[in-house]
User: Fold these one by one.
Assistant:
Number 1:
Amino acid sequence: MDKKIIITTVITLLVMMNTTLAQVENIKPGYHRSDPYCKKFVGTWKWEKGNDSFELILSYQKIYFIGIKDVTSDAIVGYHKFIKNGNIIEDVTPYKNLKYDPRKGKSTLLGSTEEGHSNFLKGTIIHISKDKSIEFEIKYIDSNHIKLVEVYNMEGTKISTDEHPYDSSISLPQNIVLTRVK
């Protein structure tokens, strides 16, 4: 995976979580951002329609903020597999047992819930086949169902060159209900 995508993903998550951290004055080493609601999203979830399928393997992890000594946060780290017309388009599920490490770039999803929105998981997902990070919103329905409500391009300036044109399209499914398989 491209290091630019990994860096963009980490920066986006940090910005998202810094909204919460900004409410705490004088963050000191040892600070931990607790997210008790994210654990309900843990599991293996799958959606299928004809020859298309989308699988998410989501795990709870305590992650360290890069560049902020000993500051941690609860987070959901994920791995996905996307099959379109029977062909594997994206698959990082073989790395599902690895601990989150943004430098190694094996996970593709990173998110957390926001204060006051305990049934919504938001974050970024690496859209490997498009060579970019995008944002997502997942809604917790019940212990057996979640809904990938939306995936969308990140805000901000996009750089496009003749050699590397920016592709604004997204091929991952959205507005789908996934069922817990594990």
Number 2:
Amino acid sequence: MTDVTVEQNETGNVEEVIKTFVIPLKGGCGHVTLEDADAIPLEMYRYIFQQGLEAIVNSVGMSKLLPGITKLEGTDAEKAKDAVRKQARANVQDLLKGQIKLKGARSAVKVDGAVQIEAMRMAKEMVKDLIRHSNQKIGAYKASEITKAAKDVLEANPDLIKKAQANLDERAGAAKTTKALDLKAMFGAKAESEEVKAKPKGANLKKAREAKAGEATKDQTRAKPKADTQKVAPRAGVKETHHTTAH
């Protein structure tokens, strides 16, 4: 939801009416915008409302109740179904009270990890800016408190996901096209040294370990001293003599 219109009702009181809605598309394909909800025919509005009710009532609080329920039989099946119905009735009551917890609902769009991290960074900056503008110290709040507040900000502002993606795209494009970015110019000889190279992954890592183990074995073989306890056979024609000491 991105646009709020202020209207005056029949009693003369001013109220906020949301008419513009942003609908995220699956597969990371962006979004479409419904500019005026009032333009939807009543029959279609009822259909949308029904779909929304079904999605919310069947998702909130159901993650531990629904899996495997169709495989149950007899008394176990009835107990499981009773638990689902109880949760569904609670969801309806929470809807009427305006207390429904939407965090349990499944997201319509899967967000890439890098985009999620960038969106969270932006949300945290918004929280910190709010603290600063309120003449408060950021250090007075724990990192966990700021993170929790940032999650709430992100949930209430889904457009941050789109902005985060735009930020990442812009930075990636700038890094590829600008001539000002050069690792050697920034870090000198270190940029070409072995210490900064990324560690090999998967099969390459296995080969690297095997090669290292092979080198260690060769070093041990080269360093191993020859045994000095080995008996030396007497030369031909020389008899062994034994000396006896008299006591």
